[in-house]
Design brief:
Blueprint lengths: L4 H6 L7 E6 L2 E5 L5 E9 L2 E9 L5 H16 L4 H16 L3 H14 L4 H18 L9 H13 L3 H20 L29 H13 L5 H13 L3 H5 L6 E2 L4 E4 L10 E4 L2 H14 L7 E2 L2 E5 L2 H10 L11 H13 L4 H7 L7 H31 L2
Antiparallel strand pairs: 1-2, 2-3, 3-4, 5-6, 6-7, 8-9
Helix pairs in contact: 4-5, 4-7, 5-6, 5-7, 6-7, 8-15, 9-11, 14-15
């Protein structure tokens, strides 16, 4: 007998779950707790299955029958209504949970666990915040290339071509992570490769001729303005030619004066591998003198505005400007090019040893380990020779 609303309202829960049929596989299930649930029993591919339609009275008798009729129509077409229900649920989750912002945040959390440097994470956070203004709330499966162009074109309109290029790269990383975790099918940024303005490559300014570099060193060694910390940092940049961030963020416990080695931790290295640099005696002398001033701190180059921070990226830049070297002539990063050019020009050192000293790591792990062991002694001799050369140029008149 078919159910009626009056009949349903009069039904009371019992000690066990009870079922009341309405025909065509549709039935009302009443639990001991009093819940009245609409369900449908059916067979598909030789298997007995059950489909749920919701709770009475939120789903009325009429609506339950409509749902039952829809399911029957799907069965007639050879479709499993339960799989359709799962697909619709997945779409709903994708719209609310699989948004660009949530997947981007998840990727950032993964990077933190992988030990990506704080500075790199902060840069990527900045790009994601810019992108989220336009794409953050959108389901990742619904984002098209034209949607991605919106924040990119905005940056290009401001002349920020490199920012636009890096934003596209960041968006692509999020999409590739979504693809890898089965929440997207493809990376739409691939279609935008040729859509953006290519920024003109600007190399870090450097003095690579010996006479020009010697003039710079003479100014640094006679420079009396600024702090001892800044002067020491510039002298060590000339002698050690590391990346500026690798030097300015150095900790005292990384230096072993007895073994004459500076061990740079992997989290501060561009290639995310520890790097060992031999220390020449003139380098150790500069460090020991600086240690008298900052040796009671964790950082070798602490900021004057706070003991828990290092000098800023602009500290050495500003000092070079005060020395009358423009940004088109020299930058802190330029010390690497200066040293590389003059070391190669000397003809005394194996180019691979110079590359190893610059921490230009080989992508082949076996080759990298082999070269590190093979060239260490040569790098020690090269460090001593280069430090003497720097002093000779600095003191020449």
């Amino acid at each position: 007998m078919k159910l009626t609303d009056l009949h349903i309202r009069k039904l009371k829960p019992g000690p066990r779950t009870a079922r009341y049929s309405d025909g065509h596989g549709l039935f009302l299930e009443i639990t001991p707790q009093g819940s009245k649930l609409w369900k449908m029993a059916y067979r598909f591919d030789g298997k007995q299955k059950t489909l749920s339609f919701g709770k009475y009275p939120f789903v009325s008798l009429l609506r339950a029958r409509e749902k039952c009729a829809e399911a029957k129509a799907q069965l007639y077409d050879g479709l499993d209504p339960r799989e359709k229900e799962k697909a619709e649920a997945a779409v709903k989750v994708a719209r609310t949970e699989h948004t660009f912002a949530k997947i981007a945040a998840e990727l950032q959390e993964k990077r933190k666990k992988e030990g990506i440097s704080k500075t790199t994470l902060q840069k990527r956070d900045w790009f994601i915040r810019l992108i989220n203004k336009d794409l953050g709330d959108m389901p990742i499966t619904e984002i098209k290339p034209v949607d991605i162009l919106v924040p990119l074109r905005r940056q290009e309109a401001r002349g920020n071509y490199e920012t636009a290029r890096r934003m596209r790269s960041s968006i692509g990383q999020v999409f590739r992570y979504a693809v890898a975790t089965a929440r997207a099918d493809h990376d739409p940024t691939f279609a935008l490769r040729d859509a953006l303005i290519t920024p003109k490559v600007q190399h870090m300014a450097a003095l690579t001729k010996r006479e020009d570099f010697a003039r710079l060193l003479q100014v640094i060694w006679t420079y009396e303005a600024g702090s001892e910390i800044t002067r020491s940092a510039l002298k060590l940049m000339a002698m050690l030619y590391t990346r500026p961030g690798e030097l300015r963020l150095a900790h005292w416990n990384e230096f072993d004066f007895e073994k004459r080695v500076w061990t740079l931790p992997e989290e501060r290295m561009k290639m995310r591998r520890p790097h060992h640099k031999p220390l020449a005696e003139p380098v150790i002398e500069i460090l020991r003198k600086l240690q008298e001033q900052t040796g009671n701190r964790v950082r070798v180059f602490p900021s004057l505005t706070g003991n828990d921070r290092s000098i800023s990226e602009n500290t050495m830049n500003q000092a070079l400007r005060r020395m009358s070297f423009t940004k088109e002539e020299m930058t802190p990063h330029g010390f690497r090019s200066s040293a590389s050019s003059l070391l190669n020009e000397s003809g005394l050192w194996n180019p691979d040893a110079i590359e190893a000293e610059l921490a230009h790591a080989d992508s082949n792990q076996v080759r990298r380990i082999y070269h590190r062991a093979l060239y260490w002694e040569e790098r020690v001799r090269m460090a001593d020779w280069w430090a003497d050369e720097v002093l000779a140029m600095a003191q020449a008149r």
